[in-house]
């Protein structure tokens, strides 16, 4: 058997360019994954220590019996798995996703909050043996449309609901060539439309109530899409076109669009957000730089607001109102420094205990809620009533 | 920001990501599994980065990728013995889809040998060091891998004889 043509074919295929992956997003996922691993190791170590101490105590008690004492209340282990996604619809309603053990596999369960009570929803499972060896269920994140009825949960698969989270249906993967669904990241814009970003960098959309994805037509020179954000009136896509980044902005779901340069060359997906009528961008080229914050009301021209007084890339940015944004800096040691940028001023704020990273936010005037990832181990809900200057813990879920 | 000495972890990832993804694709035979493998390996390397960075971090991360890919494959071995063609992810028109499909059907250790030989251009002795086996094992694994690829590709080209 002459293998030379096969060997040449292998070298040719291996040398083909690989699909691009956003390095900043990957770095953030790596850091969070490493933090979770560390937490699991710590938990296992504590558990082993507890078992060893308990074993020693039992042995000692067997050797030296003592009178029975009343039991002290013990903290019950959480039966509801680990929270991986959380979305607040309004002050009384929310949806969360947990990862649980379902027999031999992990599954994902959807919970809905109505008032003070959480309702246990359906468990989403892997088909057949597909989930063998997987560390989590098929979905991990969730986002609801402003109407509170339509929503999407995604991870390796994508499921949607049209009844506020009571029932969920699996959506097919985006169209042929759209890439594997497990790398889909989904954004819901204020008009209730979902935007699915595949690993391939291609963009798909689904209207509220639709159960399938449609490809979005972008300018021909766009190679890949990094992020989608939307205000009440405009949707913007941060895209790689040739060797440059572009902001592509549309008011009609990209039936028509216009292109604008981003406010800086060093803009990554984590540093772009839109809230109400304003786009915010945080630009830092390296971890040794201080990020500058820009805002734009029309996506056409940007105003430089302030420089963040802490070096580092941006872990999260969220708009508070048309003039203010919360900016969290990726830092080695807890907590992540967070600043409220208002006009040309940036003041430090404390969101919560430990290493708190905003995952999602809702603001209405000076009132707002943030869902935080704390130390990669628990999810916390915090609330402000003074425009983001001070935050109070509402709920903490491990 | 996560910094090893001189903030080298982030700089390493930014600078070497395309090469790591290409190597992971060669190891897994799949675009999307490649990104998962790179992330998994980096998560394991990050806590030890200050030590790793003082040696040859590129070689270290690649070795973790090879070992992790073999471990994960062991967990999923039963799946790969079914008739279902593994997903190869998004491909453009110029991609040799048949070849990638065939690569993804190889056992993980054979895929590792093929990736190290034809992507990394390592010698048999170097591959043996990475995989922790003898050069004889590398030779036999490479021979089996090429033979299996040849057979799979021949079947792809003659659908009536294939097991698609």
Tag the structure with descriptive keywords.
heterodimer; A: mainly beta; 4-stranded antiparallel β-sheet; 2 helices; B: mainly alpha; globular; disordered C terminus
Chain oligomer state: heterodimer
What class would the helix/strand composition of chain B place it in?
A: mainly alpha
| Weakly predicted, low-confidence segments of chain A | 60-78, 176-183
How is the main sheet of chain B built?
A: none
Termini gap of chain A: 59 Å
- Give the low-pLDDT segments of chain B: 1-6, 75-93, 159-164
Instruction: Please count the beta strands of chain B (DSSP E, at least 2 residues each).
Output: 0
Description:
The complex is a heterodimer of chains A (398) and B (164). With 398 residues, chain A is mainly β. Chain A has two helices and 28 strands. The longest helix of chain A is centred in the N-terminal third of the chain and has 41 residues. The N terminus and C terminus of chain B are likely disordered. Chain B is built from nine helices and no strands. Chain B is an all-alpha fold and 164 residues long. Classes of the chains: A mainly beta (398), B mainly alpha (164). At the A-B interface, helix 1 and helix 2 of A face helix 1, helix 2, helix 7 and helix 9 of B.
In short:
Chain A has 398 residues and is mainly β. Chain A has helices at residues 4-14, 23-63, and strands at 82-88, 93-102, 105-114, 117-124, 139-144, 151-155, 158-161, 169-171, 185-188, 194-197, 203-206, 214-215, 222-230, 235-241, 244-250, 258-260, 272-275, 278-283, 290-296, 303-311, 314-321, 324-329, 338-342, 345-349, 356-364, 367-374, 378-384, 392-397.
Secondary-structure map:
The complex is a heterodimer of chains A (398) and B (164).
Chain A: H1 4-14, H2 23-63, E1 82-88, E2 93-102, E3 105-114, E4 117-124, E5 139-144, E6 151-155, E7 158-161, E8 169-171, E9 185-188, E10 194-197, E11 203-206, E12 214-215, E13 222-230, E14 235-241, E15 244-250, E16 258-260, E17 272-275, E18 278-283, E19 290-296, E20 303-311, E21 314-321, E22 324-329, E23 338-342, E24 345-349, E25 356-364, E26 367-374, E27 378-384, E28 392-397
Antiparallel strand pairs in A: 1-2, 2-3, 3-4, 5-6, 6-7, 7-8, 9-10, 10-11, 11-12, 13-14, 14-15, 15-16, 17-18, 18-19, 19-20, 21-22, 22-23, 23-24, 25-26, 26-27, 27-28
Chain B: H1 8-28, H2 31-45, H3 49-52, H4 57-75, H5 77-80, H6 97-104, H7 108-118, H8 124-131, H9 135-157
């Amino acid at each position: 058997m002459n293998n030379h043509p096969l060997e040449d074919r292998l070298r040719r295929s291996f040398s083909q360019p690989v699909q691009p992956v956003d390095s900043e997003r990957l770095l953030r996922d790596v850091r969070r994954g490493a933090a979770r691993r560390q937490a699991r190791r710590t938990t296992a170590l504590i558990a082993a220590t507890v078992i060893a101490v308990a074993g020693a105590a039992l042995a000692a008690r067997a050797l030296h019996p003592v009178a029975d004492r009343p039991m002290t209340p013990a903290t019950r282990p959480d039966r509801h798995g680990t929270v991986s996604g959380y979305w607040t619809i309004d002050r009384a309603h929310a949806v969360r996703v947990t990862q649980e053990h379902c027999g031999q596999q992990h599954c994902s369960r959807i919970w809905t909050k109505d008032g003070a009570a959480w309702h246990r929803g359906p468990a989403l499972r892997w088909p057949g043996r597909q989930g063998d060896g997987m560390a989590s269920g098929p979905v991990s994140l969730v986002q609801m449309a402003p109407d509170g009825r339509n929503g999407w949960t995604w991870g390796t698969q994508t499921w949607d609901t049209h009844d506020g989270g009571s029932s969920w249906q699996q959506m097919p993967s985006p169209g042929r060539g759209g890439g594997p669904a497990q790398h889909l990241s989904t954004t819901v814009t204020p008009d209730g439309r979902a935007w699915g970003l595949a690993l391939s960098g291609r963009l798909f959309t689904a209207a509220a109530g639709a159960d399938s994805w449609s490809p979005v037509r972008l300018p021909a020179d766009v190679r890949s899409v990094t992020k989608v954000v939307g205000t009440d009136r405009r949707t913007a896509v941060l895209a790689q076109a040739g060797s440059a980044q572009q902001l592509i902005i549309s008011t009609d779901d990209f039936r028509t669009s216009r292109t604008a340069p981003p406010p800086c060359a060093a803009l990554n997906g984590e540093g772009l957000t839109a809230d109400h009528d304003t786009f915010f961008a945080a630009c830092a080229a390296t971890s040794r730089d201080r990020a500058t914050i820009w805002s734009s009301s029309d996506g056409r021209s940007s105003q430089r607001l302030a420089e963040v007084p802490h070096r580092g890339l941006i872990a999260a940015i969220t708009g508070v109102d048309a003039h203010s944004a919360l900016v969290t800096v990726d830092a080695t040691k807890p907590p992540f420094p967070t600043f409220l940028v208002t006009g040309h001023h940036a003041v430090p704020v404390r969101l919560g205990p430990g290493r708190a990273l905003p995952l999602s936010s809702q603001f209405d005037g000076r009132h707002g809620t943030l869902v935080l990832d704390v130390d990669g181990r628990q999810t916390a809900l915090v609330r402000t009533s003074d425009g983001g200057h001070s935050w109070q813990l509402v709920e903490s879920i491990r | 920001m996560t910094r090893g000495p001189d903030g080298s972890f982030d700089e390493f990832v930014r600078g070497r990501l395309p090469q790591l993804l290409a190597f992971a694709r060669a190891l897994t035979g799949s675009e999307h599994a490649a990104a998962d493998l790179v992330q998994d390996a980096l998560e394991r390397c990050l806590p030890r980065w200050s030590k790793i960075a003082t040696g040859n971090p590129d070689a270290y991360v690649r070795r973790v990728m090879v070992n992790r890919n073999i471990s994960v494959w062991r967990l999923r071995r039963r799946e790969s013995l079914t008739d279902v063609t593994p997903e190869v992810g998004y491909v453009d028109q110029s991609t040799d889809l048949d070849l990638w499909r065939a690569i993804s059907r190889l056992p993980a250790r054979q895929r590792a040998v093929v990736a190290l030989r034809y992507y990394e251009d390592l010698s048999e002795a170097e591959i043996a060091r990475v995989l922790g086996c003898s050069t004889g094992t590398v030779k036999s694994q490479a021979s089996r891998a090429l033979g299996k690829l040849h057979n799979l590709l021949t079947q792809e080209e003659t659908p009536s004889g294939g097991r698609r």
